[in-house]
Structures are given as C-alpha cells and as structure tokens.
Design brief:
112 residues; alpha+beta; Alpha-Beta Plaits; 3 helices
Length: 112
C-alpha cells in the first residue's frame, strides 16, 4: 500500500519536490520555491489522488484517506525540527477535525 501511495504522490509532485517516508505511514514533502498557497493546493491534489482511487491489496480494494499538515516558512521557525513539529501538530489537528483534510499554519484554515 505504501509503495502505491508513494507512486501516486510522485505522480502529483513536480520534479523539484522531494517526497520521503519519515516513519510508519507518515511522509514529508519538501516544496522548494513554493508559497503557502501553492503548498496548500499541492497538498489538496495529493489528498484527492490518495482518496479518489482505492488501493488494491490482495485483490481487495481499500479506501485510503490522508491528512496533511502544511508548514510555511516564517521568521519564527528557524529550522527543520521547528517545521516538522508544526507540520506534525497540524496533521493531528486535521485528524481530530475529521481526517481526510489539509491544515496549514499560513492562516490555520481548513482546506477542503
């Protein structure tokens, strides 16, 4: 399942973007030269790519949803650890708000 979802993700991302598994079923995407709006739009395209087509596992279709935490860079965040902590917090906020959605620190709004 993870390989299938990673392939779907790569199909949505640009050549300059970097997708990596950070543990379990969690992935991170680095989006160089992308503003908060562009990052939110890309996260939404990823969410749809994952949710719109079931993943076939042992001939059984499984519906997959994804929650995203989008951390834009600002002067208060000084490094990767800060960015990842904010993104992680936003993922859990998206999950607690009902899952299958994207949360951003740009305006702390839900993108649906």
């Amino acid at each position: 399942m993870l390989r299938t979802l990673a392939q779907r993700g790569l199909g949505v991302l640009r050549e300059s973007d970097l997708l990596g598994r950070i543990g379990g079923e969690e992935f991170a995407v680095l989006l160089p030269a992308t503003n908060a709006i562009g990052a939110a739009e890309l996260a939404e395209r990823l969410r749809v790519a994952f949710a719109d087509t079931p993943v076939i596992v042992n001939t059984s279709p499984l519906q997959v949803t994804a929650s995203f935490g989008i951390c834009g860079l600002n002067g208060e965040l000084t490094g990767v650890d800060d960015w990842m902590a904010v993104a992680d917090k936003l993922v859990y906020q998206a999950k607690s708000n009902g899952r299958n959605q994207c949360m951003s620190n740009a305006a702390l709004t839900i993108i649906e």
